[in-house]
User: Fold Strictosidine synthase conserved region domain-containing protein from Strigamia maritima.
Amino acid sequence: MLRILICTAVMLFVAVVLALLPTPLDDPQMYIYSQPPKAEGTLQINHKLQRTRRLFENESFAPESFAADKKGNLYTGMGDGRIMRISSEGQLQFITRTGRHHSKCGRESMEPVCGRPNSIRVDSDGNLFVADAYKGLLKILLPEGIVHVIIPAEKGIDGIPFKYLNGLEISQSGLVYFTESSTKFERRDQLYDILELNNFGRLMVYDPKSRISRVLVKGLFFPNGIAFNMEESYILITELSLCRITKYYLQTSKQGQTEVFTENLPGFPDSIRRNARGNYYVGFSSVRLDGFNTFYLLMDYLGPFPSLRTLLTKILPKSWFDVFSSNHALVVELDRKGAIVSSFHDPTAKVIESVSDAFEYNNFLYIGSMEANFIGSLDLAKVL
Assistant:
């Protein structure tokens, strides 16, 4: 009897302690994911990404996005705040930084100081627009590399400061569209936004002529990359935490409306880029495939249990969740109806661990990754 009382008391004590422990999650939501896609058909496992060349290895750090100008130069932003150019002659050149230089730039704790350029694009004048996770919407004048803060993070839009800018695209008319993945969590705490499964994301637009910015869509689930269709009648938005892509109409009778473009993707989508065929390349930060490795289906298992997700954030350090990230890099090609028509895999992360951007240029696929110390280059003629 005494043993039962002691066990009961201990269990009550543990329950009280767990209840009192702090958690970054305020109101986690329940979500039931569909059965993950099978690795068959156009998703059949292959090793195409293992043919990727590693460019500028150890000179690069977490290149997340790419853009090209009319002179044949490529541009990318590094995870330590650097903005770099790959010249038409193939040289890696420093342009500027989005934040301050510090000897510890590259560490997650230093991102608010050093900057974290997530998306980069070239405008019609040959200058750069950058969505920096911490600094806001930036414009970089070339060739000088002068950084202009267009909308500082502390100002934001509609009285809501930016917490985490992410995707960016520029229309033919010069409008700058960009996403905010979360109005609550910073990039370095993005895990908690995914675990909370709340819709804190926004799609916004900035007009350089009028200098007016406005919110187009609220209530998105970790919006990340964006891409126009060829006619620019709509824009596609990856919603990472729900493994889906949403369409927002810019024109036609559906202007201002949203609808699901495709869902139940084989992973958590990061970027989306239109390719030369008018289709879309989507890179994934983590992969979910039925029957491939169930260990990496953490969110599929935890989606219906918000209380369990809250408990895990109380007892596990944030870094421990990395063990559930799939060691499988994946890029899929979607057609204009959202169907997967081809895929590129590195199923053992031999060359690439994950994909933050897959940008087609001159029949090469330039691949960025949050974990990489190189820029990936894949000759599409050898894999298509």
